[in-house]
Here is the input.
Amino acid sequence: MTAAPAAAQFWQCAPFAREVSGIQIRGNANTWWGQAAGRYERGRTPKPGSVLSFRSTRRMRVGHVAMVSQVVSDREVLLTHANWSRRGGVERDVRAVDVSAAGDWSLVKVWYAPQHGLGTSSYPTDGFIYADGAPAETTEPVVSPAPVVMASANPSAGAWGVPLAR
Here is the structure.
């Protein structure tokens, strides 16, 4: 029997996304898009600090949420998320690519560590939930918010005080 370090934590994607993005939505990931309506701006343009909402699938029944840590191009972002490649683990700045025919982020491929590249599966998404609060008067996304960063007292942990999966 081995003891886990005190800083180790098993993360689900939704509580982790809430922690790092500041978006105050609770419940399974597949409920975030609907819950965001009227509370947060939503759209199809990636912005740093926004949360990409993945739809439920047969293999991913409760969906998934991941924070956009960086926009690389109009079809590529880096995500910071939990419980994807390794059960309960956190991954920081992993590649996600829009593979939708319309270029609208409705279908994505995401870095999968066991394959050391983009996985073979494509995942349907609802879009992005923007972290800056109430919706704007128009349907256009608002200006990019600054990502939420929390300090860690543990130098071996990630920026959010949890060990990072590599």
Observations:
- The radius of gyration is 15 Å.
- The chain is about 10% helix and 30% strand.
- Helices lie at 13-21, 32-36.
